[in-house]
């Protein structure tokens, strides 16, 4: 899979309040922090994950999708 064919939207689910929000993933950097739009919890990647999308999203970040490994 190339970066151009990567899925760029992922639904993030907050582990604090279970609020789900579809967000567009950056293609040029990892997103290490995300503030829940419902409860304002600051999400950080789980140990071993490269970004919040890999930890809390329905779709892994574009570099992982492309088989390039962690972008951090």
In short:
This protein is an alpha+beta fold. The protein has helices spanning 52-56, 62-65, and strands spanning 9-13, 20-24, 34-35, 42-43.
Keywords:
72 residues; alpha+beta; two-stranded antiparallel ribbon; 12% helix
What does this structure look like?
The chain is of the alpha+beta class. It is 12% helix and 19% strand. The chain has two helices and four strands. Strand 1 and strand 2 form a beta hairpin.
Order of helices and strands: EEEEHH
Can you summarize the main beta sheet? 2 strands, antiparallel
List low-confidence stretches: none
Helix content: 10-25%
The side-by-side strand order for the widest beta sheet comes to 1-2
Helix/strand layout:
Layout: E1 9-13, E2 20-24, E3 34-35, E4 42-43, H1 52-56, H2 62-65
Antiparallel strand pairs: 1-2, 3-4
């Amino acid at each position: 899979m190339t970066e151009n064919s990567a899925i760029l939207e992922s639904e993030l689910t907050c582990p604090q309040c279970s609020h789900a929000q579809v967000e567009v993933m950056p293609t040029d950097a990892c997103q290490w922090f995300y503030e829940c739009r419902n409860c304002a919890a600051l999400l950080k990647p789980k140990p071993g994950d490269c970004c919040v999308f890999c930890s809390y999203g329905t779709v892994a970040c574009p570099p992982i999708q492309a088989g390039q490994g962690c972008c951090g």
